[in-house]
Design a protein that fits this description.
The chain is an alpha+beta fold. Helix content is 43%, strand content 15%. Helix 2 runs parallel beside helix 4, helix 5 crosses helix 6 and helix 5 packs across helix 8. The longest helix is centred in the middle third of the chain and has 18 residues.
Length: 207
């Protein structure tokens, strides 16, 4: 999986016509307040939690050809195209089917819901989450979980204690973890939590 993510080309993959049409048509707001991709809305009304309803409606399966990197590239391009059309903060969740015997086709599913400051309960339990993209405002761009968020917050605090403005400290943290070699090896390899924020702050200012 990591090799496939590394193999994604920086240019966005061309979208199949159906996915391109969904992204182009953009979003609508249901009378209930649910935020839906226009091409995926089906005229039903939510009978419970709005975020769960949105996730159910705004879920798009993307079939694979023979190239996992191409599949992930198309999935990312589709998510970004939809997020660019959104007029409010929206999160995209990527999940992937992983067959027990490596049988093709593998598929990804991209699911969207509007950010309301609450956690989406239950939906991730039914699929295999791979990553998230969001247009919601965030300080630390590469935090994958609460532990990463804490280390990055502590690092920015340590840089601020050295005399840097807060905005500059956050920018340095994001630039440091934005380097692909660090982002994959450290964030996803679990190294970030092995050192406190002060360690990473020293590394950023002395490297």
């Amino acid at each position: 999986m990591r090799a496939a993510l590394h193999a994604i080309r920086p240019d966005e993959a061309p979208l199949p016509p159906t996915l391109a049409a969904t992204a182009t048509k953009g979003w609508i707001e249901h009378d209930s307040g649910a935020y839906l991709l226009r091409n995926l809305s089906n005229g039903t009304s939510p009978d419970g939690d709005l975020q769960t309803y949105e996730a159910d409606i705004n879920s798009q399966e993307i079939p694979r050809g023979n190239d996992l990197a191409e599949l992930l590239g198309v999935s990312l391009a589709y998510a970004r195209a939809c997020l660019r059309q959104a007029q409010k903060p929206v999160t995209a969740l990527f999940s992937i089917s992983e067959p027990y015997d490596d049988v093709i086709p593998v598929t990804t599913t991209v699911t969207f819901w509007a950010e309301r400051g609450t956690r989406l309960e239950g939906f991730e339990d039914d699929i295999q989450p791979m990553m998230l993209l969001s247009t919601a405002k965030t300080d630390f761009l590469y935090a994958c979980d609460d532990d990463h968020e804490k280390v990055m917050t502590d690092t920015a605090r340590a840089l601020t204690a050295q005399g840097l403005p807060r905005d500059e400290s956050v920018r340095k943290v994001n630039e440091f973890w934005g380097e692909p070699s660090r982002r994959w090896a450290l964030l996803y390899g679990g190294w970030i939590g092995r050192r406190p924020g002060e360690h990473w702050a020293r590394l950023m200012t002395t490297a």
